[in-house]
From TrEMBL:
Signal sequence coordinates: none
Keyword Calcium included in the entry's annotation: no
Name of this chain's protein: Uncharacterized protein
Pfam families, per database record: mTERF
Family statement: Belongs to the mTERF family.
SMART domains: Mterf
Length: 293
């Protein structure tokens, strides 16, 4: 009997993460030990959920076991929903996800196990990654782990047009399971176009904007209001430099304005030194400040 009372985290996602972990563990034990009879009952699931890191109110004021302090709470999935969770887990494992991958998905994308999702709903995404992105089984899993929302993207209306756009500007190896590739694939083409429009508004031609984004694909994820526009303003007004310098070095947008760009510009200005953006920003602090004492 457990007597210590733990605070309840009412987040449905947190509870479900524990439940999924319990089901995954049960499935693992059952499949690896043929002689082990594994029976999922509600109390056992909550115990395992607790050991998966869930803080749950295990006792009520009278010492009752596994009683939720909120009698109307519906945070914990029903017995019927456990079958759905198990079905999704088995499907994911059939697509190459390892036992250790499942808990990562429960925490990063709880809706994968909370919705009425069926394997048939997400199957097309795996087919798309394998056939059109040319991703291996492990690469597909890696991309999804980086961006689980890929599983909820429509292949025809989102993923395929996005892939066509990215390849048209010259991006390659999108099958590589990096965080950048995963999020690029899950981005609508309209969002890419807003970045191109911004670059054109500050003096880039269409071809120059395409070239800049191909050299720095991460630019598609930058905020115009909070990242790009302030850096352009400081370049032109603060440093008295030309937009042409960004055309030559679009990586300028990747550096912190407050921690890198401004301090280094001020340091050089105090010494009456003018160098290219690339030389000013690329080297580490030790090398930069040692060279420009």
């Amino acid at each position: 009997m457990i007597y210590r009372k733990w605070s309840l985290l009412s987040s449905t996602a947190v509870v479900t993460a524990g439940i999924v972990g319990a089901v995954a563990l049960g499935d693992l034990l059952f499949n690896r030990k043929n002689t082990l009879l594994f029976v999922i009952n509600f109390e056992f699931v909550l115990v395992i959920a607790y050991y998966f890191g869930l803080c749950y109110d295990l006792t009520d004021a009278n010492g009752g076991f596994f009683k939720d302090s909120n009698p109307k709470s519906t945070n914990v999935p029903s017995h019927a929903n456990l079958d759905k969770i198990l079905t999704i887990i088995k499907f994911l494992k059939s697509k190459g996800f390892s036992d250790s991958d499942i808990p990562k998905l429960t925490t990063s994308c709880p809706k994968l196990f909370l919705s009425d999702l069926e394997p048939a709903d997400i199957g097309p995404v795996f087919s798309f990654l394998a056939t059109e992105v040319a991703a291996s089984t492990r690469e597909s899993c890696g991309l999804i782990l980086c961006c689980p929302d890929l599983l909820f993207s429509n292949v025809d209306y989102c993923l395929r047009p996005t892939l066509a756009f990215l390849t048209s500007i010259g991006l390659e190896r999108l099958n590589s399971p990096t965080n950048l590739n995963a999020h690029l694939l899950n981005t609508r083409v309209s969002k890419f176009e807003t970045k191109l429009d911004f670059l054109r508004s500050i003096g880039f031609t269409y071809d120059e904007s395409i070239k800049a984004c191909a050299r720095l694909p991460a630019i598609f994820g930058y905020s115009i209001e909070n990242n790009m526009a302030p850096k352009v303003e400081y370049l032109v007004e603060g440093m008295q430099r030309s937009i042409d310098e960004i055309k030559e070095f679009p990586q300028y947008f990747a550096f912190s304005l407050r921690r890198r760009i401004v301090p280094r510009h001020m340091h050089l200005m105090q010494r009456s030194v003018h160098i290219s953006l690339k030389k000013m920003l690329l080297s580490g602090d030790d090398k930069f400040y040692a060279k420009w004492k």
